[in-house]
Amino acid sequence: MAKDIHKAGAVKSGTPLPPYFNIDPDQALAELDHPTDTARFATIAEGCTRGRNDLASRGMNEGGGKSLRLFSTWEITRYLIPVAQAHFRRVLKQNPDLPQGQSETDGGAKWFTLDEVLRLRAFFGAQGAKNKNYLPYRPKDLPAKIVAVANFKGGVGKTSTSAHLAMSAALDGYKVLVIDLDSQGSMTSIFGGTVEDEWSTAFPLLARHYGEHLRVENQRRLDRGDAPQPLDESLNAAMEMTAADVIQSTHWPNIDLIGAQLNLYWAEFQIPVWRMAARSWKLWDALTERLEADGVLDQYDVVFIDTPPALGYLTINGLSAADILLVPMGASFLEFDSTGRFFDMLHSTFASIEEGENLAARALGRPEIGFEWDAVRTVITRYDSAQQGELAGLVQAYMGPVLSPHRQDFTALIGQAGEQVNGIYEADYRDFNRETYARGRETFDATYAAFKKLLIGVWRREELAQQAEATA
Fold it and tell me: Are 380 and 443 in contact (CB under 8 A)?
């Protein structure tokens, strides 16, 4: 019997063993570096910062800022303004006051800035055929729609989805504000934002909301003969700030940004401290009410909020402010499971807020509160139909209409654009084969189409309700 075992081992002796066998302890020790202390983290961080700056600079112009590429006549007439190229050229020739574009060579193709494209779109919208949608649908006298993109699982394409939807909406002619609530600042990097500290983020808006609440509470304390709670130096500074102080322009003419950086995470520790000092402060309303008070919702068409990958206080503010909630997820069991838990946490969090607030409201005879979103959709990202079709179908069956039937396919185009810290709409199609570029952006165009249909439906419902109320 022992002889047979030896023979069996001999037959397979030429097969290499898995790499985890026969690791030499002394060799492993020789390759091991020194133990890591706290200071080592700073060294690692410094290296990452140098690398990040180097990679980010690849998407910068010679002046150290980001600039948006030009758009060709072919691209404009195919993707941005629905007219034939020949007609487009005739209109430019007949209207010399319109932007005429620039050519890189004599008699070459004309290229236009996005600002020029927006001016041309406005002209076609005013003078063109009435049966064509040169201008995007936007009801008058209704505020901007706020869209939060959230999931507490990282790597699901949350920031990428937010950025590309913002760019799509801008190319479509909407005026867009992007709010980065993630202290990692990835969205801020994509749009070339400069954020020195937390005072250039959304933090002072939250602080001012708390400070205003505290002033009202202090007046009540004084009326009762009690001592007021002092406003510290940071709160007094925040009381002088508005959204205009933290909104910065980007290299996109119709996209503005409230950026983020690491210090924004401090809000996750400061907000509960404020809440403990003033239990009546409605912290979840802070961002919404400041945006409204500062007129932001009248200045923009769509506001996109990129939230942190956690259900903290910043995310709660972003979700509370949102009219539309988008939840990106991958077509895998683990991401489906995680997304289900995310919705379960959303329920428990907001139900707990409602329960606590309404208990007090009923006792005081005040109206009860209830959170509501115009629409909630999950979106499958990084989709591979060959490998994930069956699972995606099962997920659709379990989630029903909450899961958008559109799947955002994985495309190498976004990886290539990402190497330059750009979105795919910022990539010049001349860096690719033209048809390769067209196929690569199809999935993102389809993602935007699904979102735009949702946006228009929400706006239309509100518009009809407004009209019905006016005639009642």
Answer: no
- Tell me how far apart the alpha carbons of residues 201 and 181 are, in angstroms, rounded to a whole number: 8
Locate 161 and state its tokens.
Answer: 């989805």
Q: Alpha-carbon torsion 6, 8, 13, 18, what sign?
A: negative
Extract the runs of DSSP E, i.e. beta strands, from 254-330.
255-258, 302-306, 324-329
Contact at 8 Å (CB) between 328 and 156?
yes
Question: What is the C-alpha radius of gyration for the chain, rounded to an integer number of angstroms?
Answer: 27
In the prediction, which pLDDT does 63 show?
64
- The residue type found at 202 is A
What's the burial of 382, exposed, middle or buried (CB within 10 Å: 0-12/13-18/19+)? Answer: buried
Residue 236 amino acid letter: N
The pLDDT tens digits of the residues spanning 96-123 come to 999 999 987 776 789 999 999 999 999 9
**CA-to-CA separations, 185 to 41, 78, 195, 261, 402, in angstroms, rounded:** 20, 33, 9, 5, 29
Residue 152 has which token pair? 């507490």
Q: Which of 386, 392, 387, 434 is nearest to 413 (CA)?
A: 434
* Cα–Cα distance, 405 to 351 (Å, whole number): 28
SS3 406: strand
If you write DSSP's letter for every residue of 103-133 in order, what string do you get?
ESSTT--EEE-HHHHHHHHHHHHHHS-TTS-
For the whole model, what pTM was predicted? 0.88
Residues of the chain with pLDDT under 50: 5, 7-11, 417-419
**Contact (Cβ atoms closer than 8 angstroms) between residue 101 and residue 115:** no
Q: What is the pLDDT of residue 11?
A: 47
Give 346-395 pLDDT, tens digit per residue. 999 999 999 988 988 888 888 888 999 999 998 888 877 777 778 888 88
